[in-house]
Every structure is written in structure tokens, then in C-alpha cells.
Amino acid sequence: MTSRAAEAPVPSRRSKITPEREREFYEAALDQLRECGYESLTMEGVAARSRCSKSTLYRQWKTKPQFVAAALRSNRCARFVDIDTGSLAGDLRAAALAAGDRSGDDTQLLHAVGHAVLHDPELKRALREALVDPEVTAIDAMLCRAVERGEIAADHPAAAFVTAQLFGVLRARPVLEGRYADGEYMARFVEASVLPALGLTAPPKGTCPSGAPERQAAVETG
Fold first, then answer.
1. How does pLDDT run across 113-163, given as a tens digit for each residue?
2. Is 150 exposed, middle or buried (0-12, 13-18, 19+ CB in 10 A)?
3. 48: region left, alpha or beta (phi > 0 left; psi from -120 to 50 alpha)
4. The pTM is what?
5. Long-range contacts of residues 185-188, Cβ cutoff 8 Å, at least 24 apart
């Protein structure tokens, strides 16, 4: 005789894993994602890298897209959120250096899932939550503070393109030159392109527009 309880399907259960172990799974997934791209990433490969069974991963995350989305969200890193130097030029210079510090890791992830996010809304949301939205919000806050201080007009036409400029050069340099946009490159880009477009052209104290140590004063006093 079978009871209704016996006939009902047994719900799947997520096994209990420690936060540290979960972090290892995510790091293994992100490492493989950077190395071989989304299409070539496999649950088997992540399991081997993190020394666990494939079934462990499938119990926790039912599908590869769900797993990768969770890994991306775990990598959420707001590089610009604490930047507030008191001026828009200072904020953008600090943001350039912060972006350059992580340009390799973050740009690899953007390229790795670039095609997949066009076809998977969950991956697209995860990518935005992890790498895009925090930075967009922070840059918008920098621009709002600049308007309140009277540094730029509220309707300045270049303000709408600051975020696109920063994100664009991070993705474009590896394609154009085969190198990531490191801090030095990003600093030069901000000085030469972003600040002039906003009408903020004065170089930072003690530096040339190129970002190299200022030498003119030494020549004049030499």
C-alpha cells in the first residue's frame, strides 16, 4: 500500500556547505570563465578544479547559467563607491586608477560572457549587478556632486558619456593593442579625453597631462 506521502516527489535539497567552500566553488568558476570563456566552461571542469563531485555543484545550482550567475554576483566589487575627493577631476582620476587596478580580471569576465549575456537574461542581470551597476551608480554620484558644487552644468552634454568612455576604453584596449588598460593608461585617458570633454583641463598638482612626474619646473629652475 502506498500513501500520498510516499507517492509525492521528494524535493531536492541543497547540501549544506560552508561560506568558505562556496567561495572556493565561485573562484574556480570565475577562473575557468576567464581562461576559456563561457561556452567552454563546464561543471565537470569546475568540480575538478575545486576538488568536489559534479553532483555537489548540481545540487547547489541546478544549471550552468545559474551557477555562473551566482559566481558573478559573488564577485560584486564596487571600485568607485568610496571615492569622494572633493572635485570631479579628482574623483575621475581616482576612478581611473581604481579601474586600472582590476582591469585584467574584470575585462576578462566581460569578454568571457559578452556573447552569452545576449541570450540569457539571468546572466545579463548578474553581470550588471556584479560589474556594471555599482560603478554606474558611483559615477552618477560623482557627476551629481559636481553639479551641486557648480563645477559643471546639469545639462553638460559630455556628462552623459563619462561612464561609456571609461567602460569603453577598458574593453577596447585589449582588442586594439593586446594589452589591458592599466592604471597608468587609464590616468592618461582621463587627462587627455574625459576631463577636456567636461571642460576640466587643469592637470593634477605635480604632474604633466600625460600623468608622468612634472619636469618643466625642474628645467626652469635648473
1. 877 888 888 888 888 887 788 889 999 999 999 999 999 999 999 999 999
2. exposed
3. alpha
4. 0.71
5. 185/100, 186/96, 186/97, 186/99, 186/100, 186/103, 187/93, 187/96, 187/97, 187/100, 187/211
* Cell reading at 116: 552569452
Measure Cα distances from 112 to 80, 88, 102, 115 in Å.
23, 32, 15, 8
Joined together, the cell numbers standing for residue 189 give: 585617458
| Three-state secondary structure of 122-142 | HHHHHHHHHHHHHHHHHHHHH
CA distances from residue 5 to 12, 14, 86 in whole angstroms, order as listed: 15, 21, 65
Q: Cell match 557648480: residue?
A: 150
